[in-house]
């Protein structure tokens, strides 16, 4: 400390006190001191947005932060005041009774050495929670937790001055999970014709009038997962890996963490508008889940599905009666079995609540537009575009049928079919109040994880095709100018294309070093061969795909010259740079049979290829998320708001502002 | 062919005829048929922009395209017509005399098998060139080459309807060579404080009001180099790897390829405005070179330097008398030696032309603002920010002094110092006519190539600092609102950050697989430690750097927890994820001593690290460029033009439009 107090030009002095022991492992995210406030310092709020407050006082019993006393101070106090006004106790500020004191313990590892030695640090905690409060007046607030004889933790909160005027009737947010600018560039090259450096057609995304970048980092780590990042997009609050629309506290329960209201909840509560949730993932997965679930553990899939239908029931919260549309995979949380909530039949639970339930694309297309509709089309994640359209035999996997039987889910809709049907239902059911739709291309991410670049990029192309179809549909029904469209991602993977591969030459070389010489860089990358038909092969083969006119997908999935592509973090794997015709890749395996945390090259994943040893921890069997800012494309009444570079949480405030979701006064009880 | 002619829904049929044998190796880029026109089909032009036309007729003598005759048709004809008007011979259209017929041969390899077997294909060529022509009226033109008894090649050209009104007095284009959105994200995290997910400061780039993406692919390959991509940005014409502001023809000479006029040439010719060229590379490198050089081979460095001073002298072209400012490295093309053009002393050549010549930062800072100024500050590329500012001993490299002696170039300016001085000179010399300045952070690319992420990211931060200083300077002298600022890149590298590394843990493990377990992903990425001072280390050490207030560079270059970062294409190398204190990395070496095209891990590059075997051809000792679209940030009178997604050549048309560089009528002779 002494070093820095004399320096006027010191950078980062303010942080020093709280980060003396710079650590990647943290006792509790967003709580460097022994008193914790959630929402923490620097939190932003939409005026009138419901949230919970969690306070914790920590007494570390061992490790680098060890204190001399055995129990944390339970007599802490908590005040709130607007900038420049006198702070008052939170109970008085919010007109609440004092919540009860809770106590618990938790342990954590200070670093990898401690984890390897299995020497955790024990922390004893005293805490309280204030439930369902809101701040209505824009401005700065100071929340102060005072504990342990005068120690204090201060949280500076900002209620943003967001106009209350509604500018869009409808909002659609498309999320390409894990989608980066690099992937969009590669997908464009894979599917769009270029003549002498000029594209003859471009992506729907390329044609959006306004471009932005958003920063995806989490509250307490710079790499996010999809739970945390979806929560930021939907609530305006960054949180912690695995957390769905809550701040993660240290208590043992996954269901008592402090909640923040989501845009779906706000939109329903304020306007009674329609809500649609569409994903190609299992529907309890993080990106759809964060719209209605509030838990620190995204893996509580059964509870997530219950929250789609009933919202939050363990605490007073907004009155949630289910979305108009819920389409995706994940039947295992619906048919009665050990993975559905309390073993119940959620198809029946949804039917009991008035839902029409459809389990295949044929039924989806003929379903009424007037009912609330649940569409669950497969066990687990839905089939990929490449398998639904080109390598169709891969759909014949037993026990994927959404009814929970032994059958295969062969009649699955794609993202476009689901999204267009969702739009029809949302419009029919909400002609005046408008709708909010989240449509997720989930498997851009899932296929990047397993290094299946071809499948990832075609999922991205399906998203683009869905956007094109959505714009055409909205235009045809006269809703385009009423609808704010946003296309973004929740995080990236470190992917790029660096050249081409002569796969024939590669296959014929012996030895890994020789095989690498099949790669062409710079001028030898040549032109994309995915758009060139192969005159010697029959129409309809994977070397000569035929679509209807104007649809931009690759013409040839199995050209001799493929993309030399890859990610910057990977497990041990082999690469032959050809499309995997037998279904999604499995790059690494536990071949020793001894440990599920020690993965090696899966030889049969790319028999003719060569080995690239991993850089990831050996417990990783797949790639991981990355840091990069992700693009935001927008079109609609508020499109200009979405240009430039901003934080992921800003997407929420821009969307909420466009929909006029600020509340400057408390709602009538 | 037959398959497709019956299909009404066929995608890409139009290309089929010209790409029957889909090939990554090409006989000649942009010429799939046996008759070639440059500029080729799909070329765009600024009204009044000078260009050359090259025609070629090919007679392949062997290989897959073999023809039955021994010589190409020398009696080809060439016509041009505006859309809907009668085509006339080019000589009549441009009022030129018929150029002489030229003939030559060249060989190429059809694929890797042919290259391995050393069986080239021979092509005999007949050609002509039309020099220094222009199209003044916006619209579509059809150029037709007819040869060999009625075969024809058609080029559809578009002269864009660019307004002639000048909207900006000055234009500054900053080029972060190889800079991607991913790198900007990483640099921000390395240098800017974040509290609970909210940055307390951001990059200058983050604050630019308008964001776009540009596509960097080349004319005839989807991966570009910096020559080709710089040419696209400066001329509105994509070309071929290694080509500087020409289309590459097949003739043996590097100096007869068809030229296109650059924005620097246009700006000087039309307004007599000031031109500044600043780079941290050796100044003959591609990005600065493409502003005045016209050659198919960027490696002709001596000639490039001559072209800075005299422009093009081997053909009639624009009258070029040198830029107002030329600052960078590359003394080896200036002091008299075998690498300077004709062995001449180019310091003296520039002095003879009225230039003030400065060779270090001290002289630069005190130089007059009224003279044309040449500043050459080192042999080869200039020193990196990290070495100039933190690891200063690395400047002590003999024979780097710009005078060609044995000394070290220890008094080098950075990009900021060069750019600010350039602005002062440009303003002083061009108070009425304004200026065009290109300022390049060249070593973002150069350090990414050698996997030296720390140096690459600090070069990027220096660029950002330069942008901030430029905006402040322009504001202080009242020129900010007159100046269009563009910040972009010429291509990317497939870089990203995926987590953190406990470098202490890594160093203490034995065995590569154990070392990989030092990597933390997702929640274990934690927070950036580059911004956290180390209380146990002295101020001024590389763990506690102190700058003046408001300057955003890392506080600690050697934290225990570093970024887990990497690229998606790499040679064999080792990673220890720590800053390289001895200067730029050397990831791979020719350790066998037998071949300069067989590179292996350089052990001493990262002694405590682990091996990652390469995926690149074994002849590659460093990483390569990638496909990704790159960002364009803009601010100024025409900023709105630069939003959305577009081709790299569009940057030229947007800049030229903003400066009003269209000529609708021929200039007076």
TrEMBL record, chains A, B:
Origin superkingdom: Eukaryota
Cofactor note: Binds 1 Mg(2+) ion. Binds 2 Zn(2+) ions.
GO molecular function: alkaline phosphatase activity; metal ion binding
Binding site for Zn(2+): 445, 449, 490-491, 625
CDD domains xrefs: ALP
Binding site for Mg(2+): 177, 285, 287, 440
Keyword Ribonucleoprotein: no
Keyword hit for Metal-binding: yes
Enzyme class: hydrolase
Gene3D superfamilies on file: Alkaline Phosphatase, subunit A (3.40.720.10)
Cofactor annotation: Mg(2+); Zn(2+)
Pfam families associated with the record: Alk_phosphatase (PF00245)
SUPFAM superfamilies: Alkaline phosphatase-like (SSF53649)
Keywords per UniProt: Magnesium, Metal-binding, Signal, Zinc
Active site, per annotation: 226 (phosphoserine intermediate)
Signal peptide bounds: 1-22
Annotated InterPro entries: Alkaline_phosphatase (IPR001952), Alkaline_phosphatase_core_sf (IPR017850)
EC number, as in UniProt: 3.1.3.1
Protein family (similarity comment): Belongs to the alkaline phosphatase family.
Name under which the protein is recorded: alkaline phosphatase
Lineage: Eukaryota, Fungi, Dikarya, Ascomycota, Pezizomycotina
